[in-house]
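Researcher: I need the complex structure. Ligand is adenosine-5'-diphosphate. Inputs:
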Amino acid sequence: MNKRYIVALDQGTTSSRAVVFTPEGRVMASAQQEFKQHYPKPGWVEHDPEDILFSQTESLRAAVRKAGISASEIAAIGITNQRETTLVWDRKTGKCVYNAIVWQCRRTADLVEKIKQAGHTETIRSKTGLVPDAYFSATKIQWILEHLNLQDRAQNGELCFGTVDSFLAWHLVKSHPHVTDATNASRTMLFNINTQAWDDELLGLFNIPKAILPQVVDTSRVIGFLDEDILGVPIPVAALVGDQHAALFGQACFEKGMAKNTYGTGCFMLMNIGEEFRLSNSNLITTTAWRLQGKPTYAFEGSIFMGGATIQWLRDELKLITSAMESEEVAKSVPDSGGAYLVPAFTGLGAPYWSMYARGTLVGMTRGTNRAHIVRAALESIAYQSRDLFDAMAKDSGKMPENMRVDGGASANKFLMQFQSDIMGVQIIRPEVLETTALGAALFAGLAVGVYDNMHDISRVWNAQDEFIPSMAEIDRQKALSGWDRAVRAALYWAEEKE
Ligand code: ADP
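Model: Output:
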């Protein structure tokens, strides 16, 4: 087959990447371009839409060049993206009416507070699976329409709203389709993930006209052809998918009860919960994992604010280490943390605790506590927080996963992975290809154009590289966990004292 390669466009928060894959899922080449972050006011975060577009097309061209292939050998392109980030553009000219409002932006926190105070939390939760927050697109769209006085134009169908996948699809595909996929739609707080349709009641709550919304398509589907001006030939654009959803697929977590954790700046854990929508009792988010042939698969999602960032803190603020990599060797120089626990609740604690006011706490120190103990406690804190999420997911889904698949920068740390396995009591598996987000998008795209015939075909692409088996005695595990629980209570207690 001469059209054999698949290209993933991975449009992230700080950079745009493109990765060329062989059908066997090997990375042939990749290219990346960073772009500017705009912080017009404290707490506000924006991207210039032109920067997103330019960096993405440039990295696409560079990756294809590096791979040394002809564009006509590319079977399909899949797009994966930073989620929730909101753009509104003119349907005729394609020009954005405002910068992209990035998921991190807190400008609409008060709009969300109003919605919560009016008693709409449960409605939102039961329809969208989300805990109301300014991260999601709804209040960002509301803000743009209100502040630029665009209600009438939106109502008349003159404007398009889209998350980044949608924006890229419109601009890169020749026919300018106004579409998004079910995973990205699930992050808007406007999409009913039970019925898989935009929800009129939610649109009413945020005063958003339906005419502005994209059509929601399956995650794996040809939506049109890449504009020939970009690579010289038309290529099917065959997948749109949010980054964490792509990573779950790229980790081949196809069955109910399979989970992955990405150890980046923060950690993102997703567990496949099957084809039935359910809500968690621990305030985890429920999301559409993907939608294939009209059929949604759901996932629980939880995140840890301070994952690898805890190690950056050790390096940059405490200056206990000179590189993230060094943390492994330092942690291993002591047999344990000497009873010290760090709870890196620098910006509060997420699921399953949910306290905005909890703060970083270092407890259990003695006169003998040294640098290595603290470095070790910091790495262990990433594993403990992940264990808490995993535990909540297992409980709420009613299924204990047999293992957890891992990726992201900090998954390179063998000490951390072994401790993770010990403290969770399950096997940790690190795959051959750590580019799981890009791989997931490529697999969805390959599935749409017949590079892969079915899921069985795809599952052969994923291979384990390293496995970590639990080796801690149960009594030691329980003791360690009980110490962690007490440390978390201390971090929460601090919050109560402050309020
Ligand atoms: P992101 O995609 O969020 O930028 P990455 O997946 O690139 O994150 O991972 C970077 C994070 O991982 C940083 O916070 C860094 O401190 C951490 N990290 C990288 N290597 C290691 C390591 N060997 N041990 C512990 N943490 C690490």
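Model: Summary of the prediction. The mean pLDDT is 94.
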